[in-house]
Automatic annotation (TrEMBL):
It holds the Pfam family FG-GAP_3. It comes from the Bacteria. This is VCBS repeat-containing protein. SUPFAM superfamilies: Integrin alpha N-terminal domain. InterPro entries: FG-GAP, Integrin_alpha_N. It comes from Paenibacillus artemisiicola. Keywords: Signal.
Length: 365
C-alpha cells in the first residue's frame, strides 16, 4: 500500500492544473487557473490573469503547457464550457506580470481538452471535447526553425456532435491512434489531416470521462476501454471481443459503482512495480449539485488492475473541505525527486498536492 503526504496548497477553486517550469529556474512549478505556485515548495502564489467566474465555475478546464509563440517559454492552452472559446495565455517571462490571453477559435462549449502528437512532429495537437460540435483538432503553425508562431490550423475529423467523452486509443491495432467518443470511435486514416475520419458507432459510453483510456485489461491482445461516468455513478471497463463474423463486440464490466463523477482518469505506474495503476477520483460538484451522488463524500483513489480485478486503494476520502477529489484535469508527476509520481489535485474543494512516499516500510523490498 502506497503512503501519501497530503498538502492543501490553496483555497482557490479552479478545476484544472499543470506542472511545468514557469519562470525558467529549472524547477517545476504548479499552474492552476489564475495563479501559479512557485516550486519547489509551492508556497508562493503568483497571479497569471483574471479568469471568468460564472455559476460556481471558472472558465478554465485545461492549463496545458505549450510554447505557442516560439519564445522559449511555456505558455498555457485553455478553454472551458462557458466561454465557448479555445484560448492560449502568453507567459511574459517576468514574475508578477499579467499574462495576455489570445483566442484560437470560437469552437463551442468545451468540456475539457486533451493533447496528442497525432503526426509525430514532436508538438502535440489540441483536441477539445466539444459535446455539441463535430470533433476537431488544432495544429500549431511553426516557422522554418520549428518555433511556434502563435497561430493554429483547424482540422475537423468528425461529422456529428462529439458527445461527452474523449480518448486516444488504437482500437483496431493498426498502429495509429484513434479517437474514442461517447457514441463510438473515429478511425485515424493514413493521413490524419484528411477528414472526416470514418466513424464506428459501436457503443454508448454515457456521460463518459475525459479521457476514455485504452488498455488491454485481460491480456488477450485486444485493447479494452476504461471509462468513468463523469456525471453519474460508475467506473467500468469495456472488453473488446470478436463475433463470429469478425466484427468487434464490447462487453461492459463494473469496476466501482460506489462513487460518482469520475471525470478524469490516468494510467500510471504509481508504485514503480512495472505495472500500470488506474488513478481517478470524484470531481467535486461536477454539475454543481445536480449530478447523482453530488452530496456524497469525495475521494481520490488508485486501482491495481490485476487482470481485470481492479483492487481499490484509497488515497483520500471524506467530506469536502477535509478530503480532496480529482477535479476535471489533475496532474501526475514526481515533484519531490524520490522517483515516485505525485498527484496534483485541483477542484472546487481547493488545490491539493499528494506527495507519493512509496510503499509503507513493511512492504519495501
Amino acid at each position: 500500500m502506497l503512503q501519501f503526504r497530503k498538502r492543501h496548497l490553496s483555497e482557490e477553486k479552479y478545476e484544472a492544473c499543470a506542472v511545468f517550469d514557469v519562470n525558467g529556474d529549472v524547477v517545476p512549478d504548479i499552474v492552476s487557473g489564475a495563479y501559479w505556485y512557485e516550486g519547489p515548495d509551492f508556497a508562493k502564489k503568483h497571479f497569471i490573469c483574471d479568469v471568468l467566474a460564472i455559476s460556481d465555475y471558472h472558465d478554465d478546464f485545461s492549463d496545458y503547457p505549450m510554447d505557442v509563440d516560439g519564445d522559449g517559454r511555456l505558455d498555457i492552452v485553455t478553454g472551458a464550457w462557458w466561454g465557448e472559446t479555445l484560448r492560449w495565455r502568453r507567459n511574459p517571462g517576468e514574475t508578477g506580470a499579467a499574462w495576455e490571453t489570445f483566442d484560437i477559435d470560437r469552437c463551442g462549449s468545451i468540456e475539457t481538452i486533451r493533447y496528442l502528437d497525432i503526426d509525430g512532429c514532436g508538438v502535440p495537437e489540441i483536441f477539445p471535447n466539444t459535446p455539441g460540435a463535430p470533433q476537431a483538432f488544432y495544429k500549431l503553425v511553426r516557422d522554418e526553425a520549428g518555433r511556434g508562431t502563435g497561430s493554429f490550423e483547424k482540422y475537423v475529423i468528425g461529422e456529428g456532435p462529439s458527445g461527452h467523452g474523449l480518448g486516444f486509443v488504437d482500437v483496431n491495432g493498426d498502429g495509429r491512434m484513434d479517437v474514442v467518443l461517447s457514441g463510438g470511435w473515429l478511425e485515424q486514416p493514413a493521413d490524419p489531416f484528411a477528414g472526416p475520419w470514418t466513424f464506428h458507432p459501436e457503443f454508448d459510453l454515457g456521460s463518459a470521462s475525459v479521457p476514455v483510456l485504452g488498455h488491454d485489461v485481460n491480456g488477450d491482445g485486444l485493447v479494452d476501454l476504461i471509462v468513468g461516468q463523469a456525471h453519474d455513478y460508475g467506473l467500468h471497463w469495456y472488453e473488446q471481443g470478436r463475433s463470429a463474423d469478425g466484427s468487434r463486440t464490447w462487453t461492459k464490466h463494473e469496476i466501482d459503482m460506489s462513487g460518482s463523477q469520475f471525470h478524469d482518469l490516468r494510467l500510471v505506474d504509481l508504485d514503480l512495480d512495472g505495472e500500470l495503476e488506474l488513478v481517478t477520483g470524484k470531481r467535486y460538484r461536477a454539475h454543481n449539485d445536480g449530478d447523482p451522488g453530488a452530496f456524497d463524500d469525495i475521494g481520490l483513489y488508485y486501482y491495481k488492475l490485476g487482470g481485470g480485478r481492479f483492487e481499490k486503494r484509497v488515497i483520500d476520502y471524506g467530506p469536502a473541505g477535509e478530503a480532496s477529489g480529482a477535479g476535471i484535469y489533475f496532474w501526475v508527476q514526481d515533484l519531490s525527486g524520490n522517483g515516485y509520481p505525485d498527484i496534483v489535485a485541483p477542484g472546487k474543494d481547493g488545490l491539493y498536492l499528494f506527495e507519493n512516499l512509496g510503499p509503507s516500510e513493511g512492504e519495501r523490498s
